[in-house]
Design brief:
single chain; about 425 residues; alpha+beta; three-stranded antiparallel sheet
Length: about 425
């Protein structure tokens, strides 16, 4: 049985015909080279005496290509069908539907394990994940509007809508969606168990060397690579940060307004207070209208893990500014708790990079996240997994292209007969 999602094709200039989805062929070819189809095939059992006509790993790989192209329903798989010269025989939408409907929670767990195997091979080759730098994970949730009450697992949202409220965890260095939990629209934003479950699932997706020592109760001596998780204020709970500490994982969580923070900020509200330092822009220059200060010694952190710090940032008020930690007519105050080392300015700049998660979620919404086509909850959970795997496949190809460009640039820079440094 053929387990490749594409056929070999030569690219030539000229000709009179236009080949649709040629870019998806490159993505599918890359998926075949990294062994994605065979890995998924081993995780999906089939019933009957003979193997199915369409290998299930290839069916799911074609589904990922469809999602990467902006598909949002099983019927969109038919856009690949006319290009049999590129993708070979493509399964029908009904075959894709049955394949996803047959993904039980046990099979989904096996698919995630197969994905982790492919991910480990990719992380060995990506510069963004090599070295000894801390692996940063970002957790965030997003509301998905569903216009039907017939889908299992949906619920009303706090914004007055109806749908799902999935919780996702991304790798900051690559933008990969490491784990995702499909929750009803009325799921709590700051539920500790959900955050820890998503974090544990993300750790399980990391290569063994990085995941070592980061399971609950592990000895800190087992840690080979540091891991840190960043969240918005939904993760600002004692249960979550202590759960991170129990997993030897660092944390950086957006602070919520409380009396202790009010007291600390009120003691350094003077514009010329020496604690305030100019914030740092993305290019490393000092910001003009933003300043940072550490108020750890002025705040009660008794219930927080040992070594927790509180970093506060203030910006001049502007139209449309969001709610502030501290009432002021001059500044908007924002802060976060962290147990990381570094200067207040460095930690503030690092925490603001959590905003990358919005771009990651937007990519998922452009590739199938905003429409769950099944009424069955398990099938929609499998759909969410496919959406994440499709986005990760695109990220892998991006990293591979960048790596090739760097290698070619270095080769051109080496004089004839010389050696690269």
């Amino acid at each position: 049985m053929n387990r490749n999602s594409t056929l070999k094709a030569d690219v030539e200039c000229g000709g009179t015909q236009i080949v649709a989805h040629a870019g998806l062929h490159a993505l599918g070819r890359f998926a075949d080279r990294v062994g994605l189809g065979p890995a998924l095939s081993t995780a999906i059992p089939w019933a009957g005496e003979r193997a199915p006509e369409h290998d299930r790993g290839v069916v799911l790989t074609h589904a990922m290509l469809m999602l990467a192209a902006g598909g949002e329903a099983c019927s969109d798989i038919e856009f690949l069908t006319p290009q049999s010269r590129l993708f070979g025989p493509v399964a029908s939408d009904s075959t894709l539907y049955r394949t996803i409907r047959n993904i039980t929670p046990t099979v989904l767990t096996d698919l995630q394990a197969a994905t982790a195997t492919v991910r480990a091979r990719m992380w060995q080759r990506m510069a963004a994940t090599s070295g000894t730098a801390t692996v940063v994970l970002d957790i965030d949730a997003s509301l998905i509007q569903i216009h039907s009450e017939n889908k299992a697992g949906c619920g009303p949202t706090y914004k007055g809508g109806f749908g799902f409220h999935p919780l996702l965890c991304f790798a900051d260095s690559t933008g990969e969606a490491l784990s995702a939990m499909l929750r009803p629209g009325n799921a709590g934003a700051n539920t500790v168990t959900d955050h820890l479950d998503v974090l544990d699932a993300a750790i399980a997706q990391l290569p063994d060397r990085i995941a070592a020592g980061h399971s609950h109760g592990d000895d800190s001596g087992l840690v080979e690579r540091k891991v840190q998780v960043r969240t918005d204020s939904a993760g600002c709970t004692h249960g979550f940060v202590h759960g991170c500490r129990a997993r030897n994982i660092g944390f950086a969580v957006v602070a919520r307004s409380n009396a202790s923070i009010h007291t600390a900020i009120s003691r350094i509200t003077a514009i010329d207070d020496p604690r305030w330092q100019s914030a740092q822009r993305r290019n490393g220059d000092n910001a003009v209208r933003s300043e940072v200060a550490e108020v750890t010694d002025l705040c009660d952190l008794t219930n927080w893990p040992t070594g927790t710090r509180l970093i506060v940032r203030r910006e001049h008020l502007h139209p449309g500014a969001q709610r502030s930690l501290f009432p002021s007519t001059l500044f908007r105050y924002w802060g976060h708790y962290t147990d990381a080392d570094g200067t207040p300015v460095e930690l503030d700049a690092h925490m603001r990079a959590h905003a990358h998660v919005e771009d990651h979620i937007k990519r998922l919404k452009d590739s199938g996240l905003e429409r769950f086509p099944f009424t069955n909850l398990d099938a929609n959970r499998a759909w969410l997994q496919l959406v994440c795997m499709s986005a990760d496949l695109v990220r892998y190809l991006d990293c591979a292209v960048m790596w090739i460009a760097v290698v070619e640039a270095e080769a051109r820079a080496v004089p004839s007969g010389g050696e690269s440094t």
